Amino acid sequence: MITVLAGGVGAARFLRGLVLAVDPAEVTAVVNTGDDTVLHGLSISPDIDTVTYTVAGAIDPERGWGLADETWTAMANLTRYVGVRPAGSTAAPEWFNLGDRDLATHFYRTARLSEGATLSEVTEEIARAWGLAIRIVPMTDDRVRTMVDILEDDHVTTVGFQEYFVKRRHSVPVTAIRFDGADHARSTFIDAIGAAEAVIIAPSNPLVSIGPIRALHGVDATLAAHRDRVVAISPIVAGSALKGPADRMLTELGFEASVLGVARLYAPICGTLVIDEQDAEHRDAIEAIGVRCVVADTIMRTPEIAASLATTTLTAAREGARHDR
Length: 325
Ligand code: FO1
Known about the structure:
Layout: E1 2-6, H1 9-21, E2 27-31, E3 37-39, E4 42-44, H2 46-55, H3 73-82, H4 100-114, H5 119-129, E5 135-138, E6 145-152, E7 155-160, H6 161-167, E8 174-180, H7 190-194, E9 198-201, H8 210-214, H9 219-225, E10 230-233, E11 236-237, E12 240-241, H10 246-252, H11 259-266, E13 272-276, H12 283-288, E14 292-296, H13 303-321
Parallel strand pairs: 1-2, 1-9, 2-5, 9-10, 10-13, 13-14
Antiparallel strand pairs: 3-4, 6-7, 6-8, 11-12
Helix pairs in contact: 1-2, 1-13, 4-5
Bound molecules: ligand FO1.
C-alpha cells in the first residue's frame, strides 16, 4: 500500500500521476478536511472533490478546482437574492462559486450525511460513482475547521479558511492559524501509515493542507516512527508557491519560504525531501539537518511528468524503508 497525505490542487495532480505509475488499487489518499465548509446548507469538501475530480480526469484544468465544461446558472440566479438578504444573514454567499454540475456532488454528500452516513462512507461512494480505483479517505469523520487570524483594517479578525482563501482571495496578512476540533477528532488512517510501504506527503501547503492532518492525535508520532519511509515533495520551488499563498503564509507565520524552510517543518516526520531542479543548490543544507534530499522536476505540467515524479518519490521511499527496520 502507498499512503499519500494530500491537500488540494498540487496533491491532486501528483495523485493523477501516481495512478499512472502504479496500480491505483494500491493507493490510499488521506485528504485534508480543514477547508470544508457549509454554504447554502450544503456540506462542501473542496480538497476531497479536487482530488476526486482530478484523478477522474474531470477537473477544470485552468482553475484546478470544480468540473470542466461547467455552467453557472444557479450562481447567476443567486444574485437576485443578494439585495434582499438581511444584514447579518449568510444566505446567498455569491463569493463562493458552485457550478451547476459540481452542485450535484454537494447535494449527494449533504443528503447522505443527513441520513447518518460518515464522511468516509460518502467519499468512497462518490469516488466509486466517478469510477475511481484509488481509496480516498477524509483525514477524519469528525468536524475540524481551519481558522485563520487575518489582519484587516488594522485589527485581527478570525475567519474560516474559505473566507480567507476565496472571499478575501488570500490577499490579507495572516497572523495565526488553528485547527478547531483537531484535539478531539479521531483520525481515520493511522493504520494506513503503519501498513504502507511508502508514505508520501504531497506537494501541498505544509501549514494549512498538511498541518490539519498532522494536528490529529497520534499522526506525527506514527509518521516519526516510520520516518525513513516517509517522503515529502516540496510545494515551494525557488522560494515561491506554484499555486496559492503558501510562500507568503510561511513568511508571515515565521517560517522560511524555501525548500530549507519546508525541510525544517518536515524533518521530525520525514526522512526524504524531493526538491525541484531549480533548488538543487540547497541539497547539502537540507541533508545537513538530517533529511535525505532528491532533486527532480517537480513542476507537473503534464500527467506524464507527474507520473515520473511519482516514480522518483516511490524509489526514494523504498530506499528509505531499507533504513526503517
Ligand atoms: N476557489 C476559488 O478561488 N474561488 C471559488 O469560488 C472556489 C469555489 C470552489 C467550489 C468548490 C470547490 O470544491 C472548490 C472551490 N474553490 C474555489 C477552491 C477551494 O476553495 C480552494 O482551492 C481550496 O480549499 C484550497 O485547497
